[in-house]
Every structure is written in C-alpha cells, then in structure tokens.
Amino acid sequence: MKKSLGAKTIVYPTPVFIVGTYDKNEKPDVMAAAWGGISCSQPPCVSISLQKQRYTLKNIVEREAFTISIPSEEYVAESDYFGIVSGKDEDKFLESGLTHVKSKIVDAPYVKEFPLILECKLVHTVDLGRHTQFTGEIMDVKVDEKATDTNGLPDITKIKPFTFDPAGMAYYGIGNNLGPAFNIGKKIKKQ
Question: Does the pTM of the predicted model rise above 0.85?
Fold first, then answer.
C-alpha cells in the first residue's frame, strides 16, 4: 500500500547543478540548484528553475547565459556551501578556494576543478510561481580528460557526480551499473 505525502517537490534522482553567472560588476558567482535537467535533444537544452529572490536569477536575465558545473563527490562541502550563501554577500570562489574560468563561448564562468561543464545560452524563460524556469541551449560540453572513457566520452565512475535527496535533505553518491540502456529491457519486449 502506498502512503500519500501530498504535493511535494520529491523526485529521484535530483541533480546537484552548480550554476555559474557574472553579475553586473563582472564578479563571478555560482549557486547550487537541484531543480533541473535535460529538456530537449535537438537543439540540446537543459532547464533549471530558480527561486525569484536568488542573486543568480537576475544575473541570468541580464547576461542571457549560464554554465552548469557538475561537481564530483570530493567537492560536496563546497557545493553545499554554494547553496547556503548568497553571492551578493560573499565571494564564493574566494571563500571556497575553487577557481572560476571564463567561458570562451558564453558570458558566464564555470568551476575549473569540477569534471563536467555545460555552457548555455539562454533561450527560454517561464514564470512558474515561486520559481522561474530558464532553458539554456547547450553550446558546448567540456569534460576533464581524466574523467573520460576509452572513447573520450564522460565516464560517470570517474566523474563521481552526486545527487540531492529532497525528502531526507542529504547528498548521495551514484550506485552500481544496472545494465546497458536501451538494451536491458529487450528481454521483456515482444519480438
């Protein structure tokens, strides 16, 4: 039997995206965002939803660009810090000891130490209520060479991303490989 919890923002997995922007004074800023994911294949797009009072929201609107840096497990404390303080009050790069890099493609910074980066041009904005949803066309994906497989593609076991648990308010690493996508289900499919 299922227990009803009511209308809540609980879904699994929930990503840990570190959203990078510049403010009006060219100061690089990052924030942790969990409401987001891939939203279109062609053109490749990702969407994030931010509360309206977030400092980053204004930066995205003004610059029409953002990055998403995917942190590895070793940076869970820094990633959490990025979500609990505001860039208008603190210099998050200075305080965390991490390095910002200016994207050569979009007007936004990313986190040098994080293994996977999406550089996005803002293409769509939707007011959802308490949040505003931003869709960015992915202009480039960057991956550390040491975090790639033998084909040069991102390797999740080397990237070691982690997820946010919105019900338990905790972070979790990624589990075991359960099988090949678009293949393992063939044993159930009728011929």
Answer: yes
